């Protein structure tokens, strides 16, 4: 009898790196009320690293009304752009990587190997479809470490190496700009390893303008067509965050006469904003690019050595409704993550690399925490769309960089956040349709805030420190069972939005500190971007522990 031979062993196994998973819900229970508050409680809260974020200068009064419509959940948009393989000669050998002002002829082959010049270059990244890629380990690694190929899926869109700037713009940037023109803020951040095409995507070149130029042209073409009743004024600023020899970080205004900037309460002071027309805006970008710190590294002939941030601000005045509103479109070109081994950086360059890697990592972490920190990441910008474009290098020798990027970004795909729709400018505020009982519960955090009706206001005035709920973001200050003591803040899912400071003075200094002479306590700071208010709340030590 003829024996059938078993099927050959696959040389590589496909692993789905980011299968759709349900996040475990955050436990919704507080510590037992009987448990006395300890220093442990306050220190746990104090370790929540958002002190800086909370000091964002939020305007006292919101500029637009916020509806009480149920919020809808939105996904962080993550795009992947694969750079074409470029070869250049370094010391007689052909290397893949970035080369200044050399535009490769994109090969038409969709195979995993690409013919560049006379040399065949293996690629490590294969596009499966619009939303997924397979990362294939090079032969050398599969032999030694039995490294498997991995599928990464869930991207909003994968741009292959042949994609043009205008294709990327249409799919990724255009929705952001359209929303921005309607008064919604948004952010695009480009992240990826050094030399992967972040700066190319964001700024491009004269022949291939990038997202910033295309967005400006789009914005000004709308402005000139004067299609709405609103009057709009646009402003543009460009600055970089860099580190000199790894010592601290500095901010530099990249406008022509701009110099060093400094932070004041998380606001950048002295940043110049210009704009009248698209030419002026583009010349600011061009001169900013010349000023930006760049250097030659092994990965990129003109590598960005700073995080560059461009803000396009739009002040909308609705002539009919006598309302004004500000929206900001932020575009971030992050410096590329670098592996020391690959860049061969030393001395000052190495210190710079450490700074870049650290800030990129922190940015990555912030994005992972977006579902919690989104409000703070956005600062005063409401209802922002956040997009990330990952740029990847597909060369065989780029495997490690690309693998790191995809692994780091994989959790981004699952980030969802609650978005609360703003009413479009010019619409009258919706009237409250909530049941009376519910309305009574909805007390405001500050007596001078707007989304509060008179009934609620009266109840607050009578109980000025009992606990309030913000309509828009449902951050609430909880009361204990007798409704006489504040025991914490919560939200859906519950989380603390504040930081604490020991406060043992007998006599409170402000109205927010209830006059409980002789009782020590601590203060919780928190902010609400929807109502535009910052709050400070005092907790006596002998009250119930807080929700964490
Ligand atoms: N899609 C693309 N098409 C053609 N050339 C590209 C593309 N992406 C990048 N390049 C070229 O590759 C080189 C490196 O790109 P770029 O400087 O944009 O990388 P980067 O990610 O910003 O690097 P760094 O983080 O070091 O600043 C440049 O010469 C750029 O022109």
UniProtKB/TrEMBL annotation:
<dbReference type="GO" id="GO:0005524">
    <property type="term" value="F:ATP binding"/>
</dbReference>
<protein>
    <submittedName>
        <fullName>Putative kinesin motor domain-containing protein</fullName>
    </submittedName>
</protein>
<feature type="domain" description="Kinesin motor">
    <location>
        <begin position="75"/>
        <end position="357"/>
    </location>
</feature>
<keyword id="KW-0493">Microtubule</keyword>
<dbReference type="GO" id="GO:0003777">
    <property type="term" value="F:microtubule motor activity"/>
</dbReference>
<comment type="similarity">
    <text>Belongs to the TRAFAC class myosin-kinesin ATPase superfamily. Kinesin family.</text>
</comment>
<dbReference type="GO" id="GO:0008017">
    <property type="term" value="F:microtubule binding"/>
</dbReference>
<dbReference type="GO" id="GO:0005737">
    <property type="term" value="C:cytoplasm"/>
</dbReference>
<keyword id="KW-0547">Nucleotide-binding</keyword>
<keyword id="KW-0067">ATP-binding</keyword>
<dbReference type="GO" id="GO:0007018">
    <property type="term" value="P:microtubule-based movement"/>
</dbReference>
<dbReference type="Pfam" id="PF00225">
    <property type="entry name" value="Kinesin"/>
</dbReference>
<dbReference type="GO" id="GO:0005874">
    <property type="term" value="C:microtubule"/>
</dbReference>
<dbReference type="InterPro" id="IPR001752">
    <property type="entry name" value="Kinesin_motor_dom"/>
</dbReference>
<dbReference type="InterPro" id="IPR027640">
    <property type="entry name" value="Kinesin-like_fam"/>
</dbReference>
<keyword id="KW-0505">Motor protein</keyword>
<dbReference type="GO" id="GO:0005871">
    <property type="term" value="C:kinesin complex"/>
</dbReference>
<feature type="compositionally biased region" description="Pro residues">
    <location>
        <begin position="1"/>
        <end position="10"/>
    </location>
</feature>
<dbReference type="InterPro" id="IPR027417">
    <property type="entry name" value="P-loop_NTPase"/>
</dbReference>
<feature type="region of interest" description="Disordered">
    <location>
        <begin position="1"/>
        <end position="43"/>
    </location>
</feature>
<feature type="region of interest" description="Disordered">
    <location>
        <begin position="91"/>
        <end position="110"/>
    </location>
</feature>
<feature type="compositionally biased region" description="Low complexity">
    <location>
        <begin position="25"/>
        <end position="43"/>
    </location>
</feature>
<dbReference type="InterPro" id="IPR036961">
    <property type="entry name" value="Kinesin_motor_dom_sf"/>
</dbReference>
<dbReference type="GO" id="GO:0005634">
    <property type="term" value="C:nucleus"/>
</dbReference>
<dbReference type="GO" id="GO:0016887">
    <property type="term" value="F:ATP hydrolysis activity"/>
</dbReference>
<feature type="binding site">
    <location>
        <begin position="192"/>
        <end position="199"/>
    </location>
    <ligand>
        <name>ATP</name>
    </ligand>
</feature>
């Amino acid at each position: 009898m003829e024996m059938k031979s078993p099927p050959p062993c696959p040389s590589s196994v496909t692993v789905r790196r980011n299968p759709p998973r349900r996040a475990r819900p955050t436990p919704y229970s507080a510590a037992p009320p009987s448990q006395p508050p300890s220093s442990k409680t306050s220190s746990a809260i104090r370790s929540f690293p958002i002190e800086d974020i909370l000091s964002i200068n939020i305007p006292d009064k919101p500029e637009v009304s916020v509806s009480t419509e149920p919020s809808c959940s939105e996904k962080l948009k993550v795009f992947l752009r694969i750079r074409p393989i470029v070869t250049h000669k370094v010391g007689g050998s052909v290397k893949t990587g970035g080369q200044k002002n050399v535009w490769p002829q994109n090969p038409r082959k969709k195979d995993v190997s690409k013919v560049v010049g006379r040399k065949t270059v293996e690629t490590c990244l294969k596009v499966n479809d619009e939303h997924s890629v397979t990362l294939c380990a090079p032969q050398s690694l599969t032999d030694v470490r039995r490294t498997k190929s991995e599928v990464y899926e869930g991207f909003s869109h994968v741009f292959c190496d042949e994609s043009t700037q205008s294709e990327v713009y249409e799919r990724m940037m255009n929705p952001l700009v359209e929303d921005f023109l309607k008064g919604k803020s948004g952010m695009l951040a480009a992240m990826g390893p050094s030399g992967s095409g972040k700066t190319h995507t964001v700024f491009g070149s004269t022949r291939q303008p990038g997202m910033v130029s295309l967005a400006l042209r789009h914005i000004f073409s709308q402005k000139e067509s004067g299609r709405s009743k609103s009057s709009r004024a646009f402003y543009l600023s460009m600055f970089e965050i860099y580190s000199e020899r790894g010592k601290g970080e500095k901010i530099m205004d990249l406008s022509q006469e701009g110099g060093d900037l400094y932070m004041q309460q998380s606001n950048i002071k002295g940043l110049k904003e210009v704009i009248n027309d698209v030419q002026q805006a583009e010349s600011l970008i061009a001169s900013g690019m010349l000023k930006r710190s760049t250097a030659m590294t092994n990965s990129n002939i003109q590598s960005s050595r700073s995080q560059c941030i461009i803000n396009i601000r739009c002040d909308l005045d609705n002539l009919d409704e006598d309302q004004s509103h500000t929206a900001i479109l932020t575009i971030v070109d992050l410096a590329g993550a670098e592996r020391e081994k690959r860049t061969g950086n030393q001395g000052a360059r190495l210190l710079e690399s450490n700074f870049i890697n650290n800030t990129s990592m922190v940015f990555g972490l912030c994005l992972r925490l977006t579902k919690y920190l989104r409000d703070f990441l956005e600062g005063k910008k409401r209802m922002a769309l956040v997009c990330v474009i990952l740029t990847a290098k597909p060369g065989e020798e780029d495997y490690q960089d690309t693998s790191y990027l995809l692994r780091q970004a994989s959790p981004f795909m699952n980030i969802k956040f609650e978005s609360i729709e703003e009413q479009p400018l010019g619409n009258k505020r919706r009237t409250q349709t909530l049941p009376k009982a519910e309305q009574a519960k909805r007390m405001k955090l500050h007596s001078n805030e707007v989304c509060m009706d008179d009934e609620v206001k009266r109840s607050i005035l009578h109980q000025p420190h009992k606990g309030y709920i913000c309509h828009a973001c449902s951050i609430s200050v909880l009361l204990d069972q007798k409704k006489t003591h504040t025991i914490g803040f919560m939200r859906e899912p519950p989380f603390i939005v504040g930081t604490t400071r020991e406060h043992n003075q007998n006599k409170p200094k402000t109205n927010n500190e209830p006059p409980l002479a002789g009782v020590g306590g601590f203060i919780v700071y928190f902010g609400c971007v929807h109502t535009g208010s910052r709050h400070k709340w005092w907790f006596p030590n002998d009250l119930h522990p807080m929700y964490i």
